Protein 1
Amino acid sequence: MSRADAADMPDDGAPKTPDRLRRRASRLLSQLSVRSDRLINEGLAQVDAHKWHYAVLASLLDFGPGSQAVLSGRTGIYRSDMVGVLNELAERDLVERAPDPGDRRRNIITISPQGRRHLRLLDEVLDDLHDELLAPLGPAERDQLVRLLTRLLEHHTRTS
């Protein structure tokens, strides 16, 4: 009996979930997503951060400054939520806002030197959390999993 099978058995040894349901990729992905989100959210909370902070800081470092709308598109964070995220990051001096010279009605957001340092910390935290999440897999299996998940996501992003 595998670990996954054992985790799906109550004390009396009878499966608590039908086998055909336990073998569905969609269900496994969904359950792993819930556990992954919990692990990542709790881990980032330990350093007073959340995944949206990481997404914005990573976007700014990798792609450069951008407006709120640009950052929303890069990260998938709704524009209405982006305001709050940027406010939190600005209050912590992790990003800087400056008027857009081409359109004074909007701001351009830039990562600050403190934001760069904080992003390095978040990278370390996330590396450790991903090691925990993917603990049963070796390096080649981890790479393969990321490639397969990327392929699935790209396919479904193109077709939707």
Note: The longest strand covers residues 103-111.
Protein 2
Amino acid sequence: MSAESTASRGVPQQNRFKVWRQTRPFWAGLFTMIGGVPIAYLPYGDMRLGNMTLAMQTTAGAGALIIGVLLITLGLTMWFQPAVRVFAGVATIVLGLISIPVSNFGGLVIGFLFALVGGGMSASWAPAPPVEETDAEAAAEAGETEAAPAAPGEHHEHHGTTGTTQPLIPQQGAEVPVAETTTEANGGSNSAG
């Protein structure tokens, strides 16, 4: 599966990002990456207030860095591999929950909340149903100029191998001939086997 959507090739240049964004859990990936930043940064960062330095370093700094990097990676996975969005969403939620004891209450609760929202959005996202083409549009694209589609009351007929005309859709109440045995139905050959 490529990162380039096949739908974006025939789209004008100014609408490509919009089409790309709509074919994947974009906001889920963005929230997940935003959640990974405070989880990874806060155990290593420090804040200076005048001459005073406030450091929030913990003994589990490596674990917080790993969780933050994994969340950013899962956010990118949601963007570029939307087929694994459910796995990425569940993994994001689990990592967000693990970040509470490991990374200063999940990046001061900010990263935790962003990770939970992003993971939930990813797990629940579903692609839009494909746009169905009408028979006339499909025939025009294929270059076919056969008979026009039948009206709702009409039935197309099928010429079998015997040359008789049989309706594809039997009329309501009409009897359909049924062969007694398989040998009659298949022109003399046995179908068991």
Note: Helices lie at 16-22, 26-41, 61-80, 85-102, 104-108, 110-124, 135-142, 182-185.
